[in-house]
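User: Can you predict the 3D structure for this chain?
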Amino acid sequence: MNIKKDDKEIINKIIQLFKPYKWKIVLVITCIIISSALSLITPFINQKLIDEGLVMKNFDIITKYSIYTLMLIIIIQCLGIVETRYRSYIENILSYNLEKEAFKHTLKLKMDFFCSTNYAEIMSNLRTDINNISQIANQSTFYIVTSIFRIMVGIVGLIVIDWRLSILVMVVTPVRYFLVKYLAKKRKDIFEKLIENYEKYYRWYGDTIGGVKEIKIWGLESLKTGELIKQQRNIIRQNIKMAYLSKVNEISETVFTQIITALIYIIGGYMIIGEMFTIGKLVAFITYSAYVTAPIFAIMNIGYSFASVIPSAKRYFNFMNMDDEISANNAKLEGIEKNNVLGNIEFRNVKFSYENNQSVLRNINFKIESGEKVAIIGSNGSGKSTIINLILRFLTPSSGEILLDGKDINSIKLRDYRRLISIVSQDIYLFNDTIRKNIMLNFRRTDEDMYLATKKTGAYNFIEEMPKKYETVVGEKGSKLSGGERQKVAMARAFMRDSKILILDEATANYDIESECKVNNVIQESYKDKTVIIITHKPDILLKVDKIIVINDGQVEAVGTHLELYKINNFYREMITKSLKATI
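Assistant: Here is the predicted structure, written as structure tokens:
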């Protein structure tokens, strides 16, 4: 069977997956070979049992060979237990490792991947691909590996019994090869289409469930149900074709096996009538023919069985080869100690465009000194969030550079760099876990630190009023808390980290006035030596910051204090006026 070059590469990668388990694989194959060798003795024993025991009515012979058969079966089954134990271990641990590596890689992927792919699509693709790859370690695959041994011994057994009938088996069996080759090609084509349809479906499904609120508001239930039917129709069609091909392959194997058996019975029966053959030999020959044809058919089915494995393996390995945030030369990047960082941030001629070349930022230049409290203001779509994502290294500038204490941030190890930053955004994400775990995360801090952080943010009082206090589970995305409570928990989490740089992206949008004033005072007092970047339109905050950076249409419009900008910059004055009207 001809194998394409890229398919050979995929097969080699799959083989590499099994290297850590080579000794367990050797043990499994050894058990299968020994049990296969023992099972090949069974037809000879049965021949003696029939010809010398049953036909000759010799009870001692019948008893002796029956005991031999029983002993062989017990040994074979014991070997089967050992083989199953280690084979199932390999199959499950392979699946586990594939999923673990995929999960680790997913966490390292660039943020733009998650902007274009939803979690339902990711999970579906990975689950399908891992299941298909893992099936290589199932029982039938190991059976195929040992098939050559079974075939060789089986052929010897056939020839020893009768060489003429052996030719019959060898002539008829290869005919099925051409049918299996055709079916394997069809199955691969159908499975590739099925993968594509599943990708579309789960992309649609994730998008639909993500917008369930809008569906309810606008009464789109019937429309979305119709879309589901349309999406599923293609999947059902492909699955039916897959099932049909599997049945055709199964029927072809059964029919070819029965054709061979029927011919053996006809010719063997003729030879028995002519006293050229015995009944025991005929039974033994039929058993040996199964030992030969079944493995041959199994080998022929390799291409058919792997028709779904190779497309899945291709997609899995392509996923694992996707560029991640941690560059290949990460070892050459500079590590950095938190205590050695001042917190100066500078943008030098920074430009940023997405893949469609749509310019978002143009020649951004500004500098934030260590310890400064700086606000960034601008209309929706002006580029404020892009600036924050660039600082966080979720995005990379198209040109220009961003400096931390005079060093290009991309020259610093990502893990070390991100430890320097805490962020609280308007769109808060809390894990479906306890308040304690959402605040503490993996910080090595004490409960006293946590209580102090919640007091600073105003979260302490409402948490203490809850029956389970800090052990209260917040629900999916913090759904059991109000918007203001979620922001206070997130703010406490940021304070717990005690980073050199604090970013607040509309972080107090849902705060009451008293709590907001309290947090603002904490930032002024407790963050004197830390750099604070605030995205806000609230005049009371803008009055307190050291300077304000005005972003308009992807450019720095102006930099200055609130009073300076309000006097000289029309765009800034309009923004503040709109903000004041919105609060009235």
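The beta strands are 345-353, 359-368, 373-378, 399-404, 407-408, 421-425, 501-505, 531-535, 547-552, 555-560. The mean pLDDT is 79.
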